[in-house]
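User: Hi! Is it possible to get a structure for several chains at once, not just one? Here's what I have:
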Amino acid sequence: MLALSAARLGLQCRIYDPSPNGPAAHVSDQYTQAEYSDLADVKAFAKTCDIVTYEFENVPSDTALAASTVSTLYPPANALDVAQDRLTEKSFIRDIAKVPVANFEDVASLKGLQSSVNHLGLPCILKTRRMGYDGKGQFVIRTENDIISAWEGLNGQAAILEKFMPFIREVSVIAARNSRGDFTSYPVIENIHKNQILHTSTAPSRNLTTTRDDAQNLARRIMDALGYVGVMATEFFEMEDGSLIVNEIAPRVHNSGHWTQDAGCIDQFELHIRAICGWPLGSTAPLHKVEMTNLLGEDVNDWANYAKEPNTFIHLYGKSDPRAGRKMGHINRIIKSE
Amino acid sequence: MLALSAARLGLQCRIYDPSPNGPAAHVSDQYTQAEYSDLADVKAFAKTCDIVTYEFENVPSDTALAASTVSTLYPPANALDVAQDRLTEKSFIRDIAKVPVANFEDVASLKGLQSSVNHLGLPCILKTRRMGYDGKGQFVIRTENDIISAWEGLNGQAAILEKFMPFIREVSVIAARNSRGDFTSYPVIENIHKNQILHTSTAPSRNLTTTRDDAQNLARRIMDALGYVGVMATEFFEMEDGSLIVNEIAPRVHNSGHWTQDAGCIDQFELHIRAICGWPLGSTAPLHKVEMTNLLGEDVNDWANYAKEPNTFIHLYGKSDPRAGRKMGHINRIIKSE
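Assistant: Yes, the chains can be modeled jointly so their relative placement is included. Here is the combined structure:
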């Protein structure tokens, strides 16, 4: 979707992907299939580009750094370092950006885990430091009895323990910052998950009079602290008292921002391209309220019904195997004013 | 732009283009550079496609027919035959579709031209039958004195003479029809030309209470007569009494339909893809009034100013040489309700 937005602006994209047949292969100028660890290939590729970016937060930061030695890399590689490791991420957000996160502790042993459970109190969640997404690598500890099975679930992976936050809602902010420090943000987005996978995102979120500016300001504080350039997503827990706690950041365009494609403003993909290319960021004020629904697995087979709905826009990813839970596409529905 | 729309729907496009570096090369799955006259290449290419379409009305109809022998071709090749030759086009529209056009006569000699000028009356316009666009191949005859220079301007090309119609406005209709005969149309578009090149298109057109349904019905009559499948543009002259006269048709997505990309409904490119693939056509009712302005030649250098305007969307074609009059891109401005 980034490549499609770049094409709309007359820019050409070249893709570097370890997969032989990534979706961008079909909509880009050139496609290089090579490993992230082949730094010579990475550099040879990056040399042919004016700007290099990424849309996957588990690109190794060595790979990103290699690209940055021969081209301009945005977002900067330190955003990957921070986002890839929950311990680094939470520490950075709390200690450097001074933005609230749930209480957490580094966990290095079963004994350490038991002691952290005592410090933080129950319930809490044991999370692998790396490679977790869509609820993977997370173990809820409700009672003392859950401690050992959670520890065994880690299977030796490094982890942190987080206090469980009794949030009333999950919201996110998609924002952009350019190299001059200009900042813009879409309205706060309300996210509903099913089975720990994002199901719908609606923007602007309902009833957010007190937290709207807060959320955007908190996102900006993190992006400023990172010297961030490009689009970044910040996910929050909204607490009963209206306060916000950052859950995590994603240094890329984000599923909870797909609604922007049909909202009557610059969409998150174009916004990212504009930000990294030094263009004016443009307007992020939607003309409509939009609800995005992910098409997971077999949901995608209903595409013809969605195609008939007025004020509904279909985006399909062309993946062939609709296995359960796989993101196959999404639809954006414009919600007429109530 | 068709390839970008197809990609949004999860479909892959392969391109056949005589040019080594056509714009679709950068956004498509495969790119075949070969001549239209190489029918073996055309067939080999078409065999790899489920559906073949075109977005240039001067594709030779033999080329289209060759593709249609090994794949499904939409729009049908007869639409090319009709649209490529002004004599065939006007005759088809007047005699088969029974839709009004300006009076015209086939012109085969200087003597015949003089006699046609007498029949039709002055002023009138001598037009080459083939390959005319943006005012090219047209010679206005205001007085008897213009006849010889107009004839010489033809340089031996076959031509027709048309009565000049004192129109008050040029409007167009972009409509789609699928193989089941389902039809849908965007609102009537008002077009302003400068130096015979489209400058702005605004939709919905102002003050069209009497002609709106007429225009759409006339377009449909032509498309039904052609057994048309896909998006087609019909250009009209609007006369002082509100009546409409067809100027020409274009069997493809059309510059006067580019505003649909940012109107809050299915755009003309996706509509064409839906129509030729047998998808539900979807909604063509715009949520906004939009004004499209072409960026011709050096106009494109103002892109950064347009990028700052709220409610303005930029589309650039990535062409390197901004020579005078060349279509380099366009902008769509959402016009807030007055």
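Chain B touches chain A through 40 residues (CB under 8 Å). Residues 212-226 of chain B form the longest helix (15 residues).

User: Great, thank you!
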